[in-house]
């Protein structure tokens, strides 16, 4: 059975993180659905890159995914955290013990205020780490705690995405995807 992932995007989502998560998951053979949290499928990312989603969050909020992964960026992370349909999906994801993750500002701005990091170690972009209630692992590039995976920012996006692949599809698939990317120590 093919693994499924939802990558929600918003106006102001971090360009590198959004595309890297989508790209790496698709390289691993994951069925990725990109969903805009706005009324328009096309969003303008933080660095003015225009990204067209596959669908709107409201059109897929009744679906279940093996993984929900949030890119960061501002104000994108705040827009994601303010999306009631997305937050509902993330709460259901956590309660069911399915994978969810966030990178950059999103752990602090989208997950933390919505109670999605309660009892979880996490990291975030250094400019947002002080907003995390659990400070025990903020210095790590990628943090896995239970079914929650977090990371620091654009420079850790490949490591984050490959970790998502590993926890979704296994270590062998992670290695298979990483090898042609010519990543030292991937």
Concise synopsis of the structure shown:
One of its GO terms (biological process) is glyoxal metabolic process. By secondary structure, this protein is α/β, with parallel strands linked by helices.
Would you spell out the secondary-structure blueprint of this structure?
Layout: E1 4-9, H1 15-27, E2 31-36, E3 42-44, E4 50-52, E5 55-56, E6 67-70, H2 76-81, H3 84-95, E7 99-103, H4 106-111, E8 142-145, E9 148-151, H5 157-169, H6 171-178
Keywords: Repeat
GO cellular component, one term: cytoplasm
Domain DJ-1/PfpI: 4-166
Which key features would you list for this structure?
alpha/beta, Rossmann fold, 7-stranded mixed β-sheet, 9 strands, 31% helix, globular, Class_I_gatase-like, DJ-1 family protein, DJ-1/PfpI
Describe this structure in words.
This is DJ-1 family protein. One of its GO terms (cellular component) is cytoplasm. It holds the Pfam family DJ-1_PfpI. Keywords: Repeat. It is built from six helices and nine strands, in the order βαβββββααβαββαα. The longest helix is centred in the N-terminal third of the chain and has 13 residues, at about 15-25. The model has no long low-confidence stretch (mean pLDDT about 95). The radius of gyration is 15 Å and the shape is globular. Strand 1, helix 1 and strand 2 (about 30-35) form a beta-alpha-beta unit. The chain has a single domain (about 5-180), classed as 3-Layer(aba) Sandwich (Rossmann fold). The protein has about 190 residues and is of the alpha/beta class. The strands form two sheets. It has a seven-stranded mixed beta sheet with strand order 5-2-1-6-7-9-8, sandwiched between helices. Strands 3-4 form a two-stranded antiparallel sheet.
